[in-house]
Amino acid sequence: MNGTTYDRIMELVAKREVLISSHGYDELAEDHIRVQEVLDSITLALVLEDYPDYPKGPAVLLLQKDHQGEAIHTVWGIPKGATSPAVLITAYRPDPKRWSHDFTRRY
């Protein structure tokens, strides 16, 4: 698999090679985000930060939208030394006090 971390994540999601971390499930539930919304919107995501050399494996912070068009930040990764699966590490609704109005830059 070549390309950016985001490209690799999208390929894995398209093949349904996805795992959601325990923390990810907790955060999804806490912010009332459905897994399907995250999966459905990944192809339209905006890459905010790419961590190709993250110690646990390449990861990426994305801005995604739920079915109502509200912002969701997701962090996806691929385990170090592996090519699959795409792991949804966390997903949350960004705090407008900590992010720019378009949720692309931290304050």
Structural account:
- With 107 residues, this protein is an alpha+beta fold.
- It has one domain.
- It has three helices and five strands.
- It has helices spanning 5-14, 22-30, 35-41; strands at 18-20, 46-51, 59-65, 71-77, 86-92.
- The chain has a five-stranded mixed beta sheet.
- A hairpin with a 7-residue loop joins strand 2 (46-51) and strand 3.
- The longest helix is centred in the N-terminal third of the chain and has 10 residues, at 5-14.
- The mean pLDDT is 95.
Question: How are the secondary structure elements laid out?
Answer:
Elements: H1 5-14, E1 18-20, H2 22-30, H3 35-41, E2 46-51, E3 59-65, E4 71-77, E5 86-92
Parallel strand pairs: 1-5
Antiparallel strand pairs: 2-3, 3-4, 4-5
User: What is the C-alpha radius of gyration, as a whole number of Å?
Assistant: 13 Å
Strand order of the largest sheet: 1-5-4-3-2
Which band does the percent of strand residues land in? 25-35%
For the largest beta-sheet, the strand count, sense and barrel status come to:
5 strands, mixed
In the predicted model, the low-confidence regions spanning at least 5 consecutive residues are none
Please estimate the helix content: 10-25%
DSSP summary, beta strand count: 5
How would you describe the oligomerization state of the chains in this entry? single chain
Structural class: alpha+beta
Domain count: the total is: 1
Distance between the termini: 34 Å
Query: Looking at the structure, what is the overall shape?
Result: globular
SSE pattern, N- to C-terminal: HEHHEEEE
Mean pLDDT reading:
95
Number of helices: 3
